[in-house]
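Section 5.1 Outputs to date
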Amino acid sequence: MVTLGNISSVLGIISFVLTFFNLLGIYADAVRTVMNAPSEIRDNLANLRLELLEERGAYRRYRRYLRRSGAGKERSTVARGGATNKEDVLTVMGNTIRDLWTNFKSLERPFLVRNPRRAREIQRGDYWEESDLDEKGRHVDEERNEDNLKTYYDCDFMHRFLWWRSKAAVTSLMNQVQRLQIRRIEWHATETGNTLGRMENLLTQLEERVQSLDEKLMVVRRADHGSVRRSSSRYSER
């Protein structure tokens, strides 16, 4: 006979088994992250740094273009953060890039510090100094080659553990950078389309003006031709 006590025992066993496998999955994921940390640290941090540098470069180039062309006050078809003209939209994007870069630097810095104890303290929010970095780490901002960048990051056991704690934040930051890239491409594509549309309108207007001039020239030629014929007729009569 099935009693309430038996049902409770079965439910308890099922709950224990589910909890055990859940903890086993978490442990396996942690072990897998620690084991793969060297390649993940180097690949993810190097790629993320280069992508952010690319976004900063694109932002600065377009800002210079707007200043030279004087088109910054033109209305933008892609509004961001309540901004309407191109210069304000670009400012919003610049602030976003600056915030992402700051977040990236705070995530990257512990992996540039070779001292495991200091790396752990810096990740927890402790103040850092240039002396925490070795001579090579101090020049990381000058490096643009992906393969060379990967050699800047430390991957000893403590840094692997730090990666286990930082991986989720790095992944989230990578997703934010990808969304920023999509917005930039969308904006540039829209602005390029609008520019091509304006050029098409100008070409259409130019074509209409040329056609109008051709018609006027034809009228003038016909008038001149008629005048010549009348003059020839009078000369023949004489």
